[in-house]
Amino acid sequence: MGTVLKGGFVIELEPASVERVDLRIEGERIVARGEDLTPGPDDEVVALSGKLVFPGLVNAHHRLASVLSRGLNRPTPTSYQALLEQVRWPFENALDLDAVQVAATAGGLESIQCGTTTLFDLHASPKAVTGSLLRSARGLHEVGVRGVLSYAVTDRMGAVGREEGLEETVSFARKARGRFRGQVGAGPCFTLGDDALQGLGEALNTTGTGLHFPLAEDPLDERLSTERHGNPPVTRLLNGNLLSPRAMAAHAGHLAWADLAQVLATGTWLLHTPRSNQGLEVGYAPALKFGARASLGTDGTSPDMFAEAQAAYLRSREAGQTIDVLRYLANGHRLASQVFEAAIGPMREGALADLLVLDYLSPTPLTAETLAWHVVHGLGSRHVEAVMVDGVWRVWARRPLSVNPSVVAEQSREAAAAVWARMAAS
């Protein structure tokens, strides 16, 4: 028994194409593509009547727990360091395992309602480390999102905290299956001593995965890394053999060209987070210089990848360094395909069936030549009508099928109130 999507316009991002064809899905994969496919006797037929079939979006750098910080009454930081010390780190310290799971469900639900079917999460809960990635996976599993999870190892809580983080990120990477994979995560380089870098290298060798970490989000990363550890971040990462085609560096907004060139030479993925950078007032990252292996993430902002793509494009135009937004989105699929070792993104035979149905009535011709303009100026999460992950409908008629949004929201509000109270008491 399969599912046949008939009469839709199937979208490919790179090379761009818009074609009115049918798709047949069986199990977790697309098994046929063509004009006027003949359904089998037991197939479910979905008449799309000209709606768009769009690849499920990939959020390459996210922080699920941040959903619980929305609206948090906080001081106005005077610097990036003050932001970390007065807001971000106290918030992470206040997370417990229940809050972690609730945040994953709430953040995963927002993600899938916005059309994101795969997200890469970099998590930190220093006072609730062990089991935190499993709890995140449980939360995402409730919603049906595909997830790549890592724990941000750091020396900020001392050697014991560092070792707990390493054990958590390695343990999850070893046992993740199905819609989940694990990576080795790390905090900012200035929070990592030499022992931590050595531990990360060992963890990478043990798991065979890549490193997911923030890099040069602010000039503070280079200044404190040099002051505390003798070298800037890129030098230390290269010396530790931590950069590779499996590595993922988020932000990269404050690297000298020589350092950026060295990072690019290793094949490391660079993850552009324009809305987060703008919100934190850390400056604009030169996304046009990020090379062929660059994608988009939302960091701690809302997990809306349509909004992120639009912000990325418009900010690049403002900076006079216009990026190819379709390539950035397509690279998210390439990254996910690399991690899951299966085709994710192409609307072709053999690819995993992660896709969106968009109810978008285009006011102008929608073609391969105009697709980017529609992504930037027209398409949005409001058009997401249905979402399929691994061949299973997870959203239908704009309603999530496996969770009750009202219950999820109530649980999230309760968890947020508890986290805020612990922050106030600390």
Automatic annotation (TrEMBL):
Keywords: Hydrolase
InterPro entries: Amidohydro-rel (IPR006680), Metal-dep_hydrolase_composite (IPR011059), Metal_Hydrolase (IPR032466), MTA/SAH_deaminase (IPR050287)
Top-rank lineage group of the source organism: Bacteria
Coiled-coil ranges per UniProt: none
GO molecular function: hydrolase activity, acting on carbon-nitrogen (but not peptide) bonds
Keyword Transcription regulation carried by entry: no
Domain Amidohydrolase-related: 52-393
Protein name: SsnA protein
